[in-house]
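Bench log, entry 3. Co-assembly request; chain sequences pasted below exactly as received.
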Amino acid sequence: MKEIRVFAPASVANVACGFDIFGFALDEPGDEIAVKLVKEPGVRIVRISGDEGVLPLDPRKNTAGVGVLKLLEHLKSEVGVEIELHKKMPMGSGLGSSAASAAGSLFAVNALLGSPLSPKELIAFAMEAEKEACGSAHADNVAAALLGGFVLIRSYDPLDVVQIPVRAELHCAVLHPKIEIRTEMARKILKNEISLSQLVVQSANAAGLIAGLLQGDLALIAKCLKDVVVEPVRAALIPHFYDIQKAALENGALGCSISGSGPSIFAIAKDRNEAAQIGYAMKEEALRNGLDCDLYLSSINQKGPKVL
Amino acid sequence: MKEIRVFAPASVANVACGFDIFGFALDEPGDEIAVKLVKEPGVRIVRISGDEGVLPLDPRKNTAGVGVLKLLEHLKSEVGVEIELHKKMPMGSGLGSSAASAAGSLFAVNALLGSPLSPKELIAFAMEAEKEACGSAHADNVAAALLGGFVLIRSYDPLDVVQIPVRAELHCAVLHPKIEIRTEMARKILKNEISLSQLVVQSANAAGLIAGLLQGDLALIAKCLKDVVVEPVRAALIPHFYDIQKAALENGALGCSISGSGPSIFAIAKDRNEAAQIGYAMKEEALRNGLDCDLYLSSINQKGPKVL
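Structure output for the full assembly:
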């Protein structure tokens, strides 16, 4: 095999109660990435589409290239790769766009080279790409994008990612308001200090969400999908966030919060029909308030990137 | 049935990463409580042993009485009870002594009255007793003592307790240094503010511990039994805490931290033999440093109080 084309999933990080520790991948949207092995060593990004011309072709400055450069170096590869990146998801949306590109290109190159590394081993390389894109080496999006399913980043040093099986019926509605929130800004406005009582509430919900997911307890999942630390601060960056959240919850969402650093808003639903109903209610509420947006409906991606 | 004698378990609260949200019950030590139904309404504590004379016979001031008073009132009971309380565990030790007395007397009275309430429903009454004893209505010890097993206090308002099944092989070594730490003091020295990065680490470990317990993953449990918020502060109240903790970990403990507000130190072990080895190492280390102490070895109590 000399060429491969893969789908790399968008992902939802934080998941309400799990700031910097929880993430899950979606079955749509995502990137499509085509990779070709070539004799000439190194990484060349030969084509990018769907980015409105903003992403660099320089592989050292594009998340689709950074991780692969490190991977080829690590494997002491004598061959090189050519990458085509087709963005089929919004960038700067809080849906892990840079992570999808990093995960997809790493998955593709690793597969072409005979899968010398496991998906878990690829996470560290994808984190290097995230560092280039976002300024910090976060793992919540890239781990979800590479492994699929729901992930807990238990520790960064050393990196320890725990996979949490999720019921296949669970679906997600994601509303992407077409406004820009810069990740640095979304991080800067967070308070560096929180109260002990916020810790108690937030960690109880984080622990409870894991119990709910593992035990398939939808009522428990719903009770735990709350964020008393980050959402109250970042909601101010998203016009009509609380109206949209209310519409989601009133239409049966198990929970609804900000995806990553926003502006996308995710809602978890017990099945596809509910997700559709919830998603349309969210979109209607956004449009009523003059907020232009896109809606995605997706199952929870169970496997990470896939070969197309 | 007019009389009953029950065992009510000691319990370990916080469990390293779960400040105010995690607890589990022990099979020993604990209280023995004898309760008799009598015609005359009200609650009388007729005998207390093992308390070195410090506990009050006034049922409104003794946790064995407070909860029962509320329960009889709630049930509009026309009969009364006489309670004998035999303390067979240390008080003020961080092992939930007041919670054991509250849980045991409530369990006994409820059983004598034909079990009108479930163990979960008794928690609110036991919390009233805790409020009298400790000044605040904490649920971590009483919920563990009433339900057995490992509990997550997911929320206080409304009260929501999640039971987490635990492998029967897991054992616990508990070292009780014979020093006094007042609960108010142990709480007062905590910082009211913590950093966002402490939240990330602590909630990741709390979520991971639940995953480890539910999936029976001992390695994960061991990695998560860490406390970056409370232990670093309270360790200063327990002479040679870190030496004792080191002895436990070097002898194979999955984790070792302060039980509740201390001074007791618990270590979790994968089976009874390991718990014994760990416990003796902890005790040896304490004694070497001139710290007088008692050692308890116990399985994780799976059922809460039991009829003797």
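The mean pLDDT of chain A is 95. The first helix of chain A runs from residue 63 to 74.
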